[in-house]
């Protein structure tokens, strides 16, 4: 009986993963065709918190076609609202969609593109989110600057 339960659990996990990939594909098709997205059926709030994010592997081929790296990163982040992604995860999604990012300095190029854009906020040392997700962060930075204007040295 234990073995059958284990196989059912494994099958369930596989199906959940497949559902997540399909949700990402459906969202991409809806976005590309301009169709309003359909509300996803949801369980309890606890289910939503525990549900893993769609994999960056599920990004369809050509999803970022003719987009700059900054625009493509914004599109990818909007697929996972409120969830920052590491630079390596963003690059992996670009590669999986067929975007040419195989140079050895690809992480540096992406970092520079995101850092220069006002749409992105660096989270931690290597993760990125959309600045609109972190409005309190901007307030904290500007309040620190106003509290500590240039400190004058007393000589």
The total domain count is 2
Radius of gyration (Å): 20 Å
Percent of residues in β-strands: 5-15%
Overall mean confidence score, pLDDT: 74
The string of secondary-structure elements, in order, is HHHEHHEEH
Which CATH C-level class of the largest domain is it?
Answer: Mainly Alpha
Q: Structural class given helices, strands, pairing?
A: mainly alpha
Distance between the termini: 80 Å
Task: Using the alpha-carbon principal axes, give the shape.
Answer: globular
Oligomeric composition of the shown chains: single chain
Q: Based on the structure given, which CATH architecture of the largest domain is correct?
A: Orthogonal Bundle
Low-confidence segments: 41-54
Number of helices: 6
> How is the CATH topology of the largest domain named?
Arc Repressor Mutant, subunit A
Helix content: 40-55%
CATH superfamily heading of the largest domain: Winged helix-like DNA-binding domain superfamily/Winged helix DNA-binding domain
- What's the main sheet like? 3 strands, antiparallel
Total strands: 3
Can you walk me through this structure?
The chain has 155 residues and is mainly α. The protein has 2 domains: 1-52, no CATH class; 64-155, Arc Repressor Mutant, subunit A (Orthogonal Bundle), CATH 1.10.10.10. It has helices spanning 2-33, 45-50, 69-79, 87-96, 106-116, 135-147, and strands at 85-86, 120-123, 127-130. Strands 1-3-2 form a 3-stranded antiparallel beta sheet. A hairpin with a 3-residue loop joins strand 2 and strand 3 (127-130). The longest helix has 32 residues, at 2-33. The termini are far apart.
């Amino acid at each position: 009986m234990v073995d059958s339960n284990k196989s059912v659990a494994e099958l369930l996990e596989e199906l959940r993963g497949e559902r997540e990939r399909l949700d990402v594909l459906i969202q991409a098709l809806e976005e590309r065709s301009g169709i309003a997205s359909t509300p996803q059926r949801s369980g309890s709030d606890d289910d939503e918190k525990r549900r893993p994010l769609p994999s960056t592997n599920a990004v369809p081929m050509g999803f970022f076609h003719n987009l700059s790296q900054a625009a493509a990163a914004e599109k990818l982040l909007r697929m996972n609202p409120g969830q920052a992604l590491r630079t390596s995860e963003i690059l992996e999604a670009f590669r999986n969609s067929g975007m040419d990012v195989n140079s050895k300095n690809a992480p540096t190029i992406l970092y520079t593109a995101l850092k220069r854009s006002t749409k992105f906020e660096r989270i931690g040392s290597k993760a990125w989110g959309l600045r609109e997700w972190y409005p309190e962060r901007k307030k904290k930075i500007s309040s620190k600057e106003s509290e500590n204007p240039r400190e004058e040295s007393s000589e």
